[in-house]
Amino acid sequence: MRKQWSVNKQKIGSLDQEVNALKSLNHQNIIRLYDFFEDSHCIYLVTEYIAGESLLTYMKRKPTKRCNLELSREIFKQILNGITFCHSKGFAHRDIKLENILVTKQENKLKTVFEAPLVKIIDFGF
């Protein structure tokens, strides 16, 4: 993120507190945040690497631009699981949209009858 958005030390301290709190969010459907650092121009967030694409891109690649009902339910269930976990820890995402949901190529550990991607919530509004 550009440093101009958080120019003073108080805001940097606040970001440090928020990052430390978000580091505690350990859930299959939430991207892991490990740390942040800064240089004279930007603040950088260090997150888990995810091999995948946004839900928006995933949907655009579908020939019909939509998923079947079973896959839609599985994706939505994973999003809700991640949001529920955030809320249970006192966090609100405040910007859930297709661009902030990653559909990964990683193995989904949930047992389903069909092959469903693993979904991760990203971008907590920094």
Helix content: 25-40%
CATH architecture: Orthogonal Bundle
Distance between the termini: 7 Å
CATH homologous superfamily label = Transferase(Phosphotransferase) domain 1
Radius of gyration: 16 Å
> How many β strands by DSSP?
5
Global geometry:
elongated
Give me the secondary-structure category.
alpha+beta
H/E topology pattern: HEEEHHEE
Question: Can you tell me the CATH class?
Answer: Mainly Alpha
Strands side by side in the biggest sheet: 3-4-5
Query: What is the CATH topology descriptor?
Result: Transferase(Phosphotransferase), domain 1
Largest sheet: 3 strands, antiparallel
Tell me what portion of residues adopts beta-strand conformation: 15-25%
Q: List the total number of helices.
A: 3
What does this entry show, briefly?
The chain has 126 residues and is of the alpha+beta class. The protein has helices at residues 9-22, 55-61, 69-88; strands at residues 33-38, 43-47, 52-54, 101-104, 118-121.
